[in-house]
Specification:
The protein has one domain: Metal-dependent hydrolases (TIM Barrel, Alpha-Beta Barrel). The two termini are 21 Å apart. Strands 1-2-3-4-5-6-7-8 form an eight-stranded parallel β-sheet. 38% of the residues lie in helices and 16% in strands. α4 packs across α5, α5 crosses α6 and α9 packs across α10. By secondary structure, it is α/β, with parallel strands linked by helices.
Length: 272
């Protein structure tokens, strides 16, 4: 394996590429959360922004802890929240601990009616990503056709001169995964992949090449087996790695090392 020079992780360690440890239920027990990360050899975590009013709490964690990174963005599910502009996202992303734009994307699962505002918000984030040269964190649910279409139209990928990113908490088909990978994106698997009911997703995880896989918790949600039903946290990302190793019939060390390398290859602004 060719490792990026100066890559700040040790082999056999894990990185949670997507969590929300600024949410109150985790922020209230931060010392315990960080201790559990260390206990489970989770060396770094990316705390992901979901709206602008709470962005300061995301950034504050990244500024306080060297092994925590942050993003800036507005989640597609957040309807009644200040709408970001390209200029605003670019300005807020101008910080060494902000390594990504998002999470952004489309979610038609819960919302109905005219969702053009979601699509315009998604375009705003892609444009900010292209300007800042910081990768996108994309959320898509019940909206994969429009998600891929807008990614292509806005050049959200290395083939079109963008900076690519990651399809986070992936639950779509292998065809959607392949379309994203063709644009230079990584595919991130959460605790959902460990669920007994997730047979289709497990097949996708087997098919996606290791050089395009990231692991995440999306905590405090979606705790993996054997913690399903409990509050999730970054320390549990090791269980996602263990399950993927079993699915792909590869050594756990390979999953740990490759997903850590992938993280730093994608988030080039992340430093120890």
């Amino acid at each position: 394996m060719t490792r990026r020079a100066g890559c700040p992780y040790n082999t056999g360690m894990y990185i949670d590429s997507h969590c929300h440890i600024n949410f109150p239920e985790l922020a209230a027990r931060m010392p315990e959360v960080l201790a559990k990360m260390a206990e489970n050899r989770v060396t770094h975590a990316l705390c992901v922004s979901v709206d602008l009013p709470d962005f300061p709490s995301v950034l504050a964690l990244a500024e306080q802890y060297p092994h925590i990174y942050a993003s800036v963005g507005v989640h597609p599910d957040y309807e009644d929240t200040p709408e970001p502009t390209v200029e605003q996202l670019v300005e807020l992303a101008d910080h060494p601990k902000i390594v990504a734009i998002g999470e952004t994307g489309l979610d038609y699962y819960r919302l109905e009616g005219d969702l053009e505002w979601q699509r315009e918000r998604f375009r705003t984030h892609i444009r900010a990503s292209r300007i800042t040269r910081k990768p996108l964190i994309i959320h898509t649910r019940a909206a994969s056709v429009d998600t891929i279409r807008i990614m292509r139209e806005e050049g959200a990928g290395t083939l079109d001169g963008g900076v690519a990113g990651v399809m986070h908490c992936f639950t779509e088909s292998i065809e959607v995964a392949e379309a994203a990978i063709e644009m230079g994106f990584y595919i991130s698997f959460s605790g959902i992949v460990t669920f007994k009911s997730a047979k289709d997703l497990q097949a996708v995880a087997r098919a996606v090449p290791m050089e395009r896989i990231l692991i995440e918790t999306d905590s405090p949600y979606l705790a993996p087996v054997p913690f399903r039903g409990r509050m999730n946290e970054p320390g549990y990302v090791a269980h996602v790695a263990e399950y993927i190793a079993t699915l792909k019939d590869v050594p756990l060390r390979e999953v740990a090392d490759r997903t850590s390398e992938n993280f730093f290859n994608l988030f080039q602004h992340a430093k120890a």
